[in-house]
Design brief:
Distance between the termini: 52 Å
Radius of gyration: 25 Å
Biased composition (Polar residues): 102-116
CATH superfamily of the domain at 269-430: Glycogen Phosphorylase B
Bound molecules: 2-acetamido-2-deoxy-beta-D-glucopyranose
CATH topology of the domain at 269-430: Rossmann fold
Largest sheet: 6 strands, mixed
Region (Disordered): 90-144
Helix content: 25-40%
Structural class: alpha/beta
Strand order of the largest sheet: 5-4-3-2-1-12
Number of helices: 16
Transmembrane segments: 21-43
Keywords: Membrane, Transmembrane, Transmembrane helix
Length: 468
């Protein structure tokens, strides 16, 4: 039967009928299918390889490369892959689009994974998930430092962030850094939550609290705050948010990976602002602009350019072609440099040439640019309302402002203290944060609270959130 179908399809008659009509489409299809399949399989899986790339973006605290512009074919391919893998881009879309995508996410991986699951089930060493769900809570097997067999599969999903020790080894701790973006991800968590130690980490918007960003997906207030036995949080008053049972540590991704000391550069600008990936095509109205509080930036610019005659750099407020830029007050003409999204080193160079980094955002979880600037010995002008990252600010590292009411005073105080050399940002941040200090702290937190849940590889001294 199959043989006959094959012959019928490859017969000269059939070929003649089909080929002249769609030779191009057939070729394209033949080329595109394996390419998309390969991208889907390899791209998000290569976590260790991605570390370096991702750190490039960290400079502007962006989770999104601006090469992925809607409309370009790369963007479409990317969105296809994203929707399959449900990576963070989703949050950039409007909620309507997000619904569309999450419904595809639900359908596609469910079916495409089922084949993989079957294969997994057949392979030795894996445990049938169905069987486990039906069992009552199993009596605990002896803990092993050996990496859980499901680890690789889990960390391919965006919310699951791996943890490594100082030797670069993965450990059986998984950080959950964002809301689940598909039912599949929630199911994975439910399936493995007894065997791996899942801890929450705030690194995405207001998570574990629902985001006020109008461009973000919403979830119930109590959905994530009590879901994990421990949480790496960023809040001033965590007791108001988390149930008592959750073990807490004030710790963020931005506590780690500080840049090394760099030679001084001549001061050229008063300030730098990192817009990460602003919604330039929409005059800075969108997810990223909300996260960076762009509306306040414009108000503050009136004061800084207009009243105080200051100069500055607004990073990633211009499109990649360098043509369109987010609009700024006319008084800033000739005083403000707007740049496209920059590689980390270029961004660092602007920061090093500035008197301070301007951090006006509120709903942006502990932006990495804050500790990066401090490590480059540049103080911060920070919005007091920033949900995470406020802990880096003190009289050695910069000034707070609350709103436009006390903004002028804060700017003036900061400029005076810079002039009189009263800050010591690098000294303070490297004494209190960085891989050694925070890596030890994370290892202690895990050991002191979860010794019954996880065994770390022999000799582990430090733990790092990895691949972010
Ligand atoms: C921007 O900052 C101002 C001043 O702190 C604050 O009142 C406002 O709510 C912030 N807006 C956003 C979107 O974060």
């Amino acid at each position: 039967m199959l043989v006959r179908v094959y012959y019928a399809l490859t017969s000269r008659k059939c070929r003649r009928a089909v080929l002249p009509v769609y030779p191009c489409r057939i070729l394209c299809l033949l080329l595109a299918c394996p390419a998309v399949f390969l991208a889907w399989q390899l791209w998000p899986a290569a976590f260790p390889l991605q570390d370096a790339d991702v750190r490039e973006y960290a400079g502007v605290a962006s989770r999104v490369s601006q090469e992925w512009r809607p409309g370009s074919s790369r963007a479409r391919a990317h969105h296809l892959v994203e929707s399959l893998r449900s990576r963070p881009q989703l949050s950039k879309l409007t909620s309507k689009k997000e619904e569309e995508i999450s419904s595809t996410t639900r359908k596609i991986p469910a079916s495409s994974n089922s084949a993989k699951n079957l294969r997994k089930l057949a392979s030795p060493g894996s445990v049938a998930p169905m069987a486990r769900e039906q069992q009552p809570a199993p009596s605990k097997p002896a803990l092993s430092a050996k990496l859980h067999p499901a680890h690789g599969r889990l960390i391919r999903e965006y919310p699951f962030q791996p943890v490594r020790n100082e030797r670069g080894e993965f450990v059986n701790v998984i950080l959950v850094r964002s809301p689940f973006r598909s039912r599949h991800q929630k199911e994975l968590f439910d399936q493995y939550k007894q065997e791996l130690l899942f801890l929450g980490i705030s690194s995405f918007e207001d998570y574990p609290q629902p985001p006020p960003n109008p461009f973000s997906g919403k979830f119930p207030k109590d959905e994530y705050v009590g879901l994990f036995p421990g949480f790496l949080h960023m809040l001033r008053e965590p007791a108001k948010i988390f149930p008592e049972t959750v073990k807490l540590v004030l710790m963020s991704q931005s506590d780690f990976s500080l840049p090394p000391p760099q030679p001084k550069m001549a001061t050229k600008y008063d300030f730098t602002f990192s817009g990460s990936d602003q919604d330039v095509h929409n005059d800075c109205v969108g997810w990223s602009s909300y996260a960076k509080n762009w509306t306040f930036v414009k108000t503050a610019l009136e004061v800084m350019c207009g009243e105080l005659g200051m100069t500055g750099v607004l990073v990633a407020t211009k499109d990649k072609q360098g043509r369109r830029a987010c609009s700024i007050p006319p008084s800033c003409k000739g005083k403000i440099l707007q740049t496209k999204f920059l590689a980390q080193n270029e961004f660092f160079d602007y920061v090093r040439q500035s008197k301070f980094l301007f951090v006006p955002q509120v709903h942006d979880a502990s932006p990495r640019v804050t500790t990066q600037a401090l490590a480059l010995d540049v103080p911060l002008l920070m919005n007091w309302n920033l949900i995470g990252g406020w802990k880096y600010l003190n009289d050695k590292t910069g000034e707070f402002f609350h709103d436009i009411g006390d903004f002028r005073d804060s700017v003036k105080r900061l400029l005076r203290k810079v002039e009189e050399d009263e800050y010591s940002p690098r000294k303070w941040v490297t004494t209190n944060y960085g891989d050694q200090v925070s890596g030890t702290r994370l290892r202690q937190f895990v050991e002191e609270n979860f010794a019954d849940r996880v065994k770390l590889p022999e000799g582990t001294r430090l733990l790092f959130p990895s691949g972010a």
